[in-house]
Specification:
The protein has 295 residues and is an alpha+beta fold. 35% of the residues lie in helices and 26% in strands. Strands 4-5-10-6-7 form a 5-stranded antiparallel β-sheet. Strands 1-3-2 form a 3-stranded parallel β-sheet, covered by helices on one side. A 3-stranded antiparallel β-sheet has the order 11-12-13. The N and C termini lie far apart (47 Å).
């Protein structure tokens, strides 16, 4: 089957209009932005919304700026805009790393940041990146706005905490001094979904002359990590000296506590090996950036 089922179409002209349409249309309505994930699922009838609400006109949700000590990214920001943003890259290089390996230029020019997170695909790259940096999602409905940590945003594969009648409108990432971040991915071919990928951010303490890890964030994708992050690995890393031995051990902890599934991309043991290796690579690169030794 390559033909979607019957669907009503509405085009929203503002955020308020979109929320009104969603509330009026009920739980079987879906918002569509880039459509690179939803439309193929509709063609296969894996998704069968009764009403499709086009939110591409919501330009007020397309921005990248620093405000109140946070990097704020509108949900309608395109992947290409995040990739080219000097503001985002200067504060969190992990986003540029991740965007470079997401799909291809056509997808990046049209797909949106909010759409990627709301699709909640277990192999999606930005979910791991935003989980690593402890972003906060802003969700809006007709009755008001609420915030949810990205680490609590996904309820499971293709499920999020965004309720019927609500939209994800913004991602907020707190900015803290002394950080460095990176993203590493293995894919079968350029632009493919991850076989495995790891993102890391480090905040270093250099008060005693020897850098140690004051805090850390580690995101994982495509390997069954709960909510896209590696809590046990992060906990072990805090207070450790910056060095290859620590990073390798942290990678092994991350690999031990994820839950990859065997599929056409590889067996479980291979994916666990990749988790360990990619986590260590991301941590090494993040540490170099935190110390000003790599752009």
């Amino acid at each position: 089957m390559q033909v979607p089922s019957h669907v009503e179409y509405e085009k929203a002209t503002s955020l308020q209009h979109a929320l009104t349409l969603l509330a009026r249309s009920g739980p079987e309505a879906r918002a569509v932005a880039g459509g690179h994930s939803l439309i193929p699922m509709m063609k296969l009838r894996l998704a069968q919304p009764e009403v499709l609400i086009d939110i591409n006109g919501l330009t007020e949700l397309s921005y990248i700026r620093i405000e109140s000590g946070e990097l704020r990214i509108g949900a309608m920001t395109r992947h290409a805009d995040l990739l080219s943003s000097p503001v985002a890259g200067e504060q969190f290089a992990i986003f540029h790393d991740a965007e470079r390996v997401i799909a291809d230029p056509i997808v990046r020019n049209w797909g949106t940041i909010g759409g990627s997170l709301c699709q909640a695909d277990p192999s999606e790259d930005l979910s791991a990146a935003f989980a690593a940096v402890r972003a906060v999602a802003v969700i809006q409905g007709l009755n008001g706005t609420r915030t949810v940590p990205v680490r609590e945003f996904h309820d499971g594969p293709y499920e999020t905490v965004v309720d019927s009648g609500e939209l994800l409108t913004e991602l907020r990432v707190p900015i803290r001094a002394g950080s460095g971040s990176a993203y590493e991915k293995v894919e079968r071919r350029v632009g493919d979904w991850s076989v495995a990928a790891a993102g890391a951010i480090l905040w270093l303490d250099t008060d005693d002359g020897r850098p140690t890890v004051a805090d850390a964030g580690i995101g994982l994708t495509a390997v069954g990590a709960d909510h896209f992050f590696a809590a046990e690995a992060e906990e072990f890393l805090r207070g450790q000296s910056v060095g290859d031995a620590s990073f390798v051990w942290v990678g092994e902890i991350a690999a031990e506590h994820c839950n990859p599934a065997a599929d056409q991309r590889g067996p479980v043991d291979y994916k666990r090996y990749l988790v360990g290796e990619l986590t260590a690579r991301a941590l090494r690169r993040a540490a170099r950036r935190a110390q000003g030794r790599e752009a």
